Predict the 3D structure of the following.
Amino acid sequence: MVIIKTEREIEKMRAAGQIAARALKLAGEAVRPGVDTFEIDDKVRKYIESQGAISSTLGYGGYPASTCISVNDVVIHGIPSKKCILKSGDIVSIDIAVSLEGFHADNAATFACGEISEEAKNLLEATKESLYEGIKKAVVGNRIGDIGNAIQRYVEARSYSVVRDFVGHGVGAKLHEDPSVPNYGTQGRGVRLLPGMTIAIEPMINQGTHRVKVLGDGWTTVTQDGKLAAHFEHSVAITKDGPDILTLCE
Ligand code: MF3
Ligand code: CO
């Protein structure tokens, strides 16, 4: 069931989104060669706590951290670790969700560590751009399929692939609500978008095959071919005035 939010609830989600966005910025600034991903998670956890907010991922289905930090061929759900030490040339996807006063906001971005290859830069740019292509379609009267279709067309035109096994989602009083928001699809299909719907749009885009596998820890999700993956995400409210991005850094 899709839950429509009031304007007041959307403002609460924007407050959560503000903290999630600042936490993501802080995490991105901490990405540099020699840093381990546990250190980054620790900074984020402290920041979220300092704001009186709660990490939505810490303890979620047993997930052990306040961030997901996914390096190179790790697509999503990389678990921060002292053993995972960043080096120049890595691409680092960081996903952060927080809740404040009962409402969640969710965002992610992929950062460059030191100097990255031209191919990696292009992947990051295309993935980020595909998120905005999707957001543009998050308007009243469109359908969920319009969002996924825009993302899919944008990335496949650049010979990248869209992960199928994981998708975006509604977000609100719960981190994951209806509807599912696939990053692929058909124009004019799926749930119709109404004012007050709030969704997390999160293209996960691979350099090679769209196929992924989950490692033995039950979380870490990698590309099957070992090629790079990128991930960008915003929480967005659908309003009569168009898409309203709730996870912007002011
Ligand atoms: N922020 C992630 C998302 O986009 C949450 C991943 S679930 C977790 O849905 F358990 F890994 F935290
Ligand atoms: Co999400």
Q: What stands out?
A: The longest strand covers residues 91-100.
